[in-house]
Design a protein that fits this description.
CATH topology of the largest domain: Rossmann fold
Radius of gyration: 19 Å
CATH architecture of the largest domain: 3-Layer(aba) Sandwich
Strand content: 5-15%
Number of strands: 6
Shape: globular
Length: about 240
């Protein structure tokens, strides 16, 4: 089998000359997927100490032995998300891979991304009842052809429930400041009948990227209003706010 794969890689490399979806260098082993090994290995985890709530890096001087070591933003507010983690920062190869999944339709990338989410978000997945993908509005879902959050949710190794639906088609969040992003998400989601079966349960929201957390927060508030006991979040990447 290994010899057959090696031969297939050699033929595909010569005939098709495929390029890595992240770095655009020639793929030496195209049968392993559209991203090269070097790009996967370059994706580093976020370095502790991390905020116990949102997962942002904390200043290195913070005492990480505190029971709840939270960043200033989480201490100031009352986030609906109880805990959040991500594979790594939304930068470099990880950003390019997510773009390839989301905008280029490279849906096979959901499998290795889901594996990394399982590995680096093991504490977030521990003890939860199910994964809930952040839904797209039907119009955007038809345009894109799939929901990348749902593809990722199916790869994290726990049951998936469609407990949310998007009831308002919001403008793109790209380029909006945090306050506008939160206003943009207001009343954008509603609970489905499946949410009523999760009363008191711990669940994990799944999405591709957390930027300001506005989308995840909006989803979490709807779920908690429906009776869900604890809402965690696990994303493929997060835009890191530098610690101060």
């Amino acid at each position: 089998m290994q010899a057959l794969r090696t031969s297939a890689d050699a033929v595909l490399s010569v005939v098709l000359s495929p390029a890595c979806a992240a770095c655009e260098h020639p793929l030496l082993y195209p049968t392993r997927g559209p991203v090269c090994d070097d790009c996967w290995q370059s994706i580093l985890p976020l370095t502790p100490p991390l905020c116990d709530r949102c997962g942002d890096p904390l200043p290195t001087w913070r005492l990480v032995s505190l029971p709840l070591a939270c960043c200033a933003r989480c201490r100031r507010g009352s986030p609906a998300i109880d805990r959040a983690r991500a594979i790594g920062a939304y930068d470099g190869a990880l950003r390019a891979i997510i773009h390839a999944l989301k905008y280029d339709g490279r849906r096979s990338l959901a499998r290795p991304l889901g594996r990394l989410m399982r590995e680096r978000g093991a504490d977030i997945l521990d003890g939860v009842t199910c994964a809930i993908p952040v839904p797209l509005h039907p119009s955007r879902r038809r345009h894109r052809g799939f929901n990348q959050a749902a593809d990722l949710a199916r790869r994290v190794g726990i049951p998936v429930r469609s407990a949310l639906r998007r009831i308002r088609a919001t403008p793109t969040q790209t380029g909006l400041p945090a306050a506008r992003r939160h206003r943009n998400m207001r009343d954008a989601f509603a609970a489905t009948p499946a949410a009523r079966q999760l009363t008191g349960a711990a669940v994990v929201l799944i999405d591709d990227v957390s930027t300001t957390g506005a989308t995840l927060e909006a989803c979490a508030r709807v779920l908690k209003e429906a009776g869900v006991g604890e809402v965690r979040a696990l994303t493929a990447a997060r835009v890191v706010t530098l610690p101060r």
